[in-house]
Amino acid sequence: MTYSIIARDEVAGHLGMAVQSHFLAVGHKAIWGRAGVGMIASQANVSLDYGLTGLELLDSGETPATALRKCQVRDTSPDVRQVAMLDAGGRVAAFTGEGCWDNASHHSQPNVSAQANMVAHSEIPHVMVETFLSTDGSFEHKLLAALDSAEMLGGDLRGRQSSALFVVNGERKTAPNDGVIVDLRIDNSPEPLRELRLASELNSALQLVWPVIRGAACRGPVAPTPDETESAIEVLSAAQVVYGRGNLEPSFWKAIALERAGRKSESDQLISTISQNHAGWYELYTSILRRGSAAEKSGTK
Questions:
Q1: 3-state DSSP call for residue 269?
Q2: Smallest Cα–Cα separation from 267: which of 42, 138, 275?
Q3: In Å, how far are 36, 52, 109, 115, 166 from 15, measured between CA atoms?
Q4: Residues in a beta bridge with 81
Q5: Which among 59, 209, 228, 279 would be 20 to 30 A from 15, CA to CA?
Q6: Any residues with CB less than 8 A from the CB of 127 and at least 6 apart, and which?
Q7: From first to last of its 301 residues, what are the pLDDT tens digits of the chain?
Q8: 40, containing H or E segment
Q9: Is the dihedral of CA 279, 284, 287, 288 positive or negative?
């Protein structure tokens, strides 16, 4: 039914989980995480208590092993659960009940645990962990690579339907929902892994784009410097490659940056091309420029 991996980024301290299942919206109930506290995978016959109570126990200072045992004591059917818990220090505890189906197993070591049930091969968790540890690149990329490795061994016996990627900061935050770095879910798709990877790439591009569209090149009462404009155009052009032809958001903000830099003919040409796909872009373009003009006259943001 489901395979997942929870892990701690030993460099940044971030905690993350990636999961795939032939089940609608697997990320809704399988993933439980809190910044600076821990990450919990709850699957097979899911009991929400392992996530809710598990995080509270980890937050109170219990080890993953103790937190897992205390949740099991409260559970009337622990034999049908598959659970893995990871704390902010990288300690791990995992359990696969005897009532879980078809090649159900887990493989854990410090900082990482993979677990699977109703899958094509019993070695899937072991291969997922090895893939995570041996893959170069970002933390998110390593988690997604682990999912791909499970699929190469046959994955879920029933196929694919949904996937999710969740990453939180390794430092504890004041509010329980603060510190979320990545929260991406593909709830119903014939290709959830491909779409999750694309969403992750878009999210990475957005993290670079967001400061640009909030910065001087795209808004504010003062015209940008040439360096600010060129830097923004470079970021937005690179992001457009990732976004693809179906989403012209970076190019739209590039047109705004060109206009604010006094490069009106380039801006007009670009917004004209963008608006051929969707007329609303031009309406938003003129609205933003009007607001910018008003801000310049009043000296406000």
A1: helix
A2: 275
A3: 8, 17, 15, 16, 8
A4: 44
A5: 209
A6: 149, 150, 153
A7: 899 999 999 999 999 999 999 999 999 999 999 999 999 999 999 999 999 999 999 999 999 999 999 999 999 999 999 999 999 999 999 999 999 999 999 999 999 999 999 999 999 999 999 999 999 999 999 999 999 999 999 999 999 999 999 999 999 998 878 999 999 999 999 999 999 999 999 999 999 999 999 999 998 888 899 999 999 999 999 999 999 999 999 999 999 999 999 999 999 999 999 999 899 999 999 999 887 654 444 444 4
A8: strand 38-44
A9: negative
Tokens 């929400």: give the residue. Answer: 48
Distance CA 82, CA 50 (A): 10
Distance CA 190, CA 105 (A): 25
C-alpha distance across the termini of the chain, in Å: 52
Strands of the 15-21 sheet, one edge to the other: 105-109, 112-117, 2-8, 15-21, 162-168, 180-186
Residue for token pair 């670009």: 270
Q: What is the rounded distance in angstroms from the CA atom of residue 61 to the CA atom of residue 76?
A: 25
Q: What is the DSSP string of 154-188?
A: T-BTT---EEEEEEE-SS--SSTTTTEEEEEEE-S
Cβ neighbour number for residue 3 with a 10 Å cutoff: 28
Give CA–CA dist 20/295, Å, rounded.
48
Render the burial of 121-142: b for 16+ CB within 10 Å, e for the rest. Answer: bebbbbbbbbbbeebeeebbbb
Bridge partners of 82?
43, 96
